[in-house]
Amino acid sequence: MIVDRTVISDWTVEGSGTAVPPDVRSAGPIAASVPGSVHTDLMRAELIPDPYLDENEKTQSWIGLTDWTYRTTVTWAPDGSERQELVFEGIDTIARISLGGDDIAVTRNMHRTHRIDVTGRLASGDNQLQVAISSPIKAADAASMALGYRPHANHHPYNSIRKMASSFGWDWGIDTCTSALWKPVALETWSQARLAELRIGGDVVDGVPRLRVTGTIDVTGFDEPLELAVSVAGHVLTAPVRAGVAEIYEDVPNAALWWPRGYGEPALHHVVVTLRSGDEVVDDRNYRVGFRSVEARTQPDATGVGFKIVVNGQTIHVRGANWIADDAFLHRVDRARYSRRLAQAEFANVNLIRVWGGGIYESEDFYAECDERGLLVWQDFLLACAAYAEDEPLWSEFGAEAHEAIVRLSAHPSLVLLNGNNENIWGFQEWDWEKRLDGRTWGAAYYYELFPSLVAELAPHVAYTPGSPFTPDRSARQNDPSQGTAHIWDIWNEKDWPHYRDYRPRFVSEFGWQGPPAWSTLMQSVSDSPLTPESPGMLVHQKAIKGNDKLTDGLTAHFPLPNEMGLWHWAMSLNQAIAVRAAIEWYRSLTPHCTGTIVWQLNDCWPVTSWAAIDGYERPKPLLYALRHAYSDRLLTIQPDESGALRVAIINDSQEKWIAELTIERRDYAGLLIDQQVQTLRVAPDTAMDVAINKALATPGRPSNELVIARLGDATALWFFSDYRDSELTSNPCTAIARFREGGWDVIVRAHSLARDVALLVDRVHPDAVASDALFTLLPGESTTIRVVGALDADGADFSAPTVLRTANDLLSKRDGT
Fold this sequence. Notes:
With 818 residues, the chain is of the alpha+beta class. The protein has 5 domains: 4-188, Jelly Rolls (Sandwich), CATH 2.60.120.260; 192-289, Sandwich (Immunoglobulin-like); 323-630, Glycosidases (TIM Barrel, Alpha-Beta Barrel); 634-726, Immunoglobulins (Immunoglobulin-like, Sandwich); 734-812, Immunoglobulin-like (Sandwich), CATH 2.60.40. It is built from 16 helices and 44 strands. The longest helix is centred in the last third of the chain and has 25 residues, at 565-589. This is beta-mannosidase. GO terms for molecular function: beta-mannosidase activity.
């Protein structure tokens, strides 16, 4: 008998405790959406305003101090099934569950499924089901005392309970401390047997695709022989069920391999798994599986220990972005939204997404999108910036959630790396944790024992690292850029972006620079009057410690600090893009010494000043265009060599030869050619090379008015001899003419003097408009056409408005605009 599943709906939720405001208390139980959260239910009932707007977050702290009770009625009639089970796919977080007035379970982990056997407990007719969720703030505080204090980032002891860390706020995240039934709740009834757990994954062994399947079977006393059958790529593979387990590990020789984006096709194969008793299908599952091998390779060499992600024997030059939960209220992120976000990642030429450890084990929709797009996924286990107790009940909860996550996610070919934690090993060494711990456990046994043993047992076809940053020698200093993976944060926190070139890392898994959200997002979420960088709503939407000071410090070496909000917004947005592009181009110029970068961060969970390239209302910031340029398959960049002389670095990550004439020129800002060198280059696929620039060509006569331009095919690189604020850039360097076309506009931008870092901020024309390119530089007389999607009701002149057509030149002149 195949499992019958009924999703349970028609819930209410009600808060209790002294923190509940009178108007909410008098409203009594309100309708609750499941999946959902108390915040979104309260918004729907018009009992709270949107917490994303203005200073509303400040007024809603009572929600996290409140106990919340969900209630519904489960109507059931005996259906001949032998087993009835309630399945809670996600409860956030500490909950007591009762059925018909009797307690049936206590749950302590939002990151795992809870399956509760209620056989014999259901009455015919209506059954009252209640989920009482404790205040997460109070629960975390109590657990922290019971387990003993462990150091953590931010202000709540999120490390004491198994709730999404960033739900308690982060240096980019809203502090919601919400409670929720954030995934579906269902009643499942069945007889005979069911597939309790199915581990499935595609591997490649000695060049041959191989399928791994392990099925664990639950039975109700059924004693007939059972068989597991798997259909894939024209093959039918079978195995008998013995002692509740069936295993298949067989070659699928004609299956096409799954390749990452840019390296081949991400071939997927439909897989049908059936549990049979004779000719009867008892239970079944459907998957889409890809066959690939993966290795996280660490190799000592003359300059340290390298780190490479190797897929199907091919070293992947990682062009990555870190991912946080895409909304503070997780249930609002559906397949369409994942698709939009990952399409933006592809637009930015990203080939790997790192799912950060303060969020969630991402959804099937997320992974399915990555599978289809060939996007690699690095998934952290959910421990971030904190010490974690290795005592009960946490130890068992970590084991259970890790087991479930590994089994679920390892079916996806896009998952290539499971990582033990974010910054915790480094934190233990460098952040004075040891003396604060006073001998208490801090999580090492998770990273070096529990997690790697579970990965080896459940998903040997997925690579594992103990942490990020990661130095292979456990006893050595973590976050050593010459050993394994590194996080480079001192540039943003203490220095300035040109200092990225002080590093020669092997692999950078975090680095970044802050910038505000798109202007229309700012207007939509903050209504301060006057609006300034330090007005009340702006400060609520700036979570980083001394964030505005760091923005200012990082700007003034390059541009004067504007005293007008529109220009301030442009300056900070542009400087974010410049900083990150400078870092990526430098690190990529070190290929193959440096094998990858993962920028912090791709996305946001609400409208906020942050390190993201896409803001919390899904709008691209200038940084997204900087990523698109810096992460192009074929990159040309001019960089200093170890002696300080200039070189052209040519990086060909494509799988085709790059044969073209390399032209290197020194010109003045008027476009006059001063010197040049020319040569024909043949750059093999998946390789990099340097070309030295002649000393005479690289020596300016007038640094503030000269630049070097390198061209190879369609790729261009620029090197300016002086910083922005020391350059002889003129105001109003370009014009724009817009021509309407179906679906949007073609905007022709033409320069009459050197126009540096040109951008069309088209969301100022219409909030949903999107431009095809930004942050390009034009010499006098040059032009380019930008395609704009949307803004159909605009006037063509809108695109040449000073607030829309922006350049770096604007920040060096007295030209204003709001």
